Amino acid sequence: MRDALGDHLVSLWRFALILSRRRDTAEDLVQATCVRALERADQYQPGTRLDRWLFAILHSIWLNEIRARRVRAGAGTVDAELALVFDGGEATETNILAAQVLSAIGALSDGQREAVLLVYAEGYAYREAAALLGVPVGTIMSRLAAARERLAGLKDE
């Protein structure tokens, strides 16, 4: 399990960053996911997709964090643009476009952001994303359609 986790860290971090919109929170989520996966490695069913199991753990931890924040009341979020770090190198134009895209994705509703990341960035099938998030497939399709409509304005700009 320990060796297999390393293959999924980048995807987990990307998902955590989309959910939390904060680098530090994303890192904490990934770390908590890895700890829980190691602690509960016996619950993983060999032959199934490890990444799907890890994403489900991360999503569960995130939902618990959201509930805890509501109880504590006061922890805010940071815009996606502030979560990016630019090195000022030769790819400035690409980084600007990436910041615009991430900002637009960050402006989507939580459900739309989750669906966009899982389906478009991580390559999950609609059914897989629906199962991971615990929603019907039609909900994923609806969220993606709404997200595409909102993001279509970027293309014109």
- Overall, the morphology is globular
Strand content: under 5%
CATH names the topology of the largest domain as: Rna Polymerase Sigma Factor, Chain: A
Question: Count the strands?
Answer: 0
Give the total of domains. 2
**Assembly state (oligomeric):** single chain
> Sheet bearing the most strands, described?
none
CATH class of the largest domain: Mainly Alpha
Radius of gyration: 16 Å
* Helix and strand composition category: mainly alpha
How many helices? 8
What string, H for helix and E for strand, traces the elements in order?
HHHHHHHH
Low-confidence stretches: 75-92
Overall pLDDT metric? 79
Helix content: over 70%
CATH architecture of the largest domain: Orthogonal Bundle
Beginning-to-end CA distance, first to last residue: 45 Å
